Amino acid sequence: MTKKPLLHLVFGGRVDDPQGLDFSHCDEIDIVGIYPSNAKAMEAWRGASQARVDEADIKYVIVHLHRLFDPETDTTTDD
Questions:
Q1: Which of 24, 42, 63, 75 has CA atoms 20 to 30 A from the CA of 34?
Q2: Are residues 49 and 60 in contact, defined by beta-carbon separation less than 8 angstroms?
Q3: Dist CA 46 CA 43 (whole Å)
Q4: How confident is the model at residue 1 (pLDDT cuts 50, 70, 90)?
């Protein structure tokens, strides 16, 4: 049986407070992509974050889309 991908969305943008998740310009959100594993999403997140490291008010995040579809998804086995 083929293991189903656990989808992860990576996006970022300008935030009001770098410690929070209140994106201040939602019309300017940078959608990096959707990835089939946490490892691939982390790689994309790291690249996007490092590219904008000098901009303290820009933040990138990973959203575990698979949790929205199936809240019981076990993320400990996600590669």
A1: 24
A2: yes
A3: 5
A4: low
